[in-house]
From TrEMBL:
Lineage: Eukaryota, Viridiplantae, Streptophyta, Embryophyta, Tracheophyta
Compositional bias annotation for Low complexity: 54-63
Keywords assigned: Hydrolase, Protease, Serine protease
Protease Do-like PDZ domain residues: 442-559
Protein name (record): Protease Do-like PDZ domain-containing protein
Amino acid sequence: MGETRKRGRKPKAPASTTETMDFQYTSASNATQTDYVAAQNDVFSAANDSVPTAAAAAKNDANNPPPARRGRGRPRKSEAGHMEDTEPHAAASPERRPYQNGAVVLEPPPQPVAKWESVAARVVPAMDAVVKVFCVHTEPNYSLPWQRKRQYSSSSSGFIIGGKRVLTNAHSVEHYTQVKLKKRGSDTKYLATVLAIGTECDIAMLTVSDDEFWEGVSPVEFGDLPALQDAVTVVGYPIGGDTISVTSGVVSRIEILSYVHGSTELLGLQIDAAINSGNSGGPAFNDKGNCVGIAFQSLKHEDAENIGYVIPTPVIMHFIQDYEKNGAYTGFPILGVEWQKMENPDLRLAMGMKSDQKGVRIRRIEPTAPESHLLKPSDVILRFDGVKVANDGTVPFRHGERIGFSYLVSQKYTGDTALVKVLRDSKILEFDIKLATHKRLIPAHTSAKPPSYYIIAGFVFTAVTVPYLRSEYGKDYEFDAPVKLLDKHLHAMAESTDEQLVVISQVLVADINIGYEDIVNTQVLAFNGKPVKNLKSLANMVDNCNDEYLRFDLEYQQVSSLSVPLPLSLSLSLSHTHTHS
């Protein structure tokens, strides 16, 4: 997690955003943050220096009383005018102790140890398993897909687990070219291999082939899901310094969160410990020194302070077990339905529900979902795997807590089945539903693959993805992109697993395409009267075309004249010399 170095002007930040703390600067000029561990070691060294005991100090003071010294702060009153501490337990009088050079200083009495300080002390043995992750990224240029952007470097955090593996955030190694790891207190960077990247859960797994890296380090142990107000300590390498840093707080909230990088909603922890740029991938420890989560994003808002988010252990273990079970990351399955709350009593009566029945109504079903032939719109989901679903779509979580029933779905693995009880036409039916991953018409990620494109007569065809929209319209693409593309992004469903939304991204000016220079990001509906299913099918149809003209039926976006029909047809006399990949 860290900030990237990018050229150009800095874009304006929105008023309220939840950001993944991507990358950090590694420049020494940013070393302004005092490292907690270093300070802790300094205090420990001073306390264990060769200092005479208090009894010996008193004996020496009797013979050679030191000159009076005035300390900083407010002067102490005499016993006659004793000032009571406002805390429940009054502080004892300061103790006189000589230091090495013979001078006498006033040492304050021991203070009660705060809860987070005791947690940090217990975490110290596990800190050696926290590593610094250095990554070189080479991001594709989605607007010019035959090119790549200039490479850049980043640093973030990670930690060692069993099986000679290291966990960090997926966004910390996104579009990686090279990844290196450095242990605490070491001056050596070790080349790492990326084993798996989970985009939905924002977790990546690494390993190092050099056996020297694993010497003298004990892997981190995982703990249970913490409760509210449990103390947590976040350890990592955030911006502001090069050494390890510790921030502490408590668990503020446990609920289904929006994962910014993964564009999904999974279980997450909200904590009040500071999570800064560079903390990404660092572990969050409980008071027993066990890892209870991975720091991955924070909330930036003018009215919010110290709101950080942590990936909890159930999500982490799902990622690890998925990799161990399948040899690769397969993702988190979904039920494949859009549902509606049933909180209105008249709506429940209209759906034939009894007074003791609760559930949610199915609005739409993903055509690519395995259960699309079993479930139907207007079915009311009453139970999922035997757990009752409330009218607001929540299920019991822990004592006094409820959570969205999508949490039950996310506990499953791709290919697992779930028993779903529904109400249809006042009849209760049960189905064994096979769960699968989500197939989006406009994917949120490209799975580290370079973007596909097809060029003919200067027309650049490509498939729309979220990275493409972000490249074309910036971070605020949800406001600046064409309305019809946004409508498909937010509401359209893929009819088949290989369906893509193909557009003409731009027209490279040439004599053959005069008059079409202004066509930008317009969807291709058909070619010579045949529907365009995906980019590959379009390329095949053009390659095999023997007609005199190539006709592309486009969805018209640009308004130049009211008399122009909405489906704009292009009839072009083109040679069959073209470039594609």
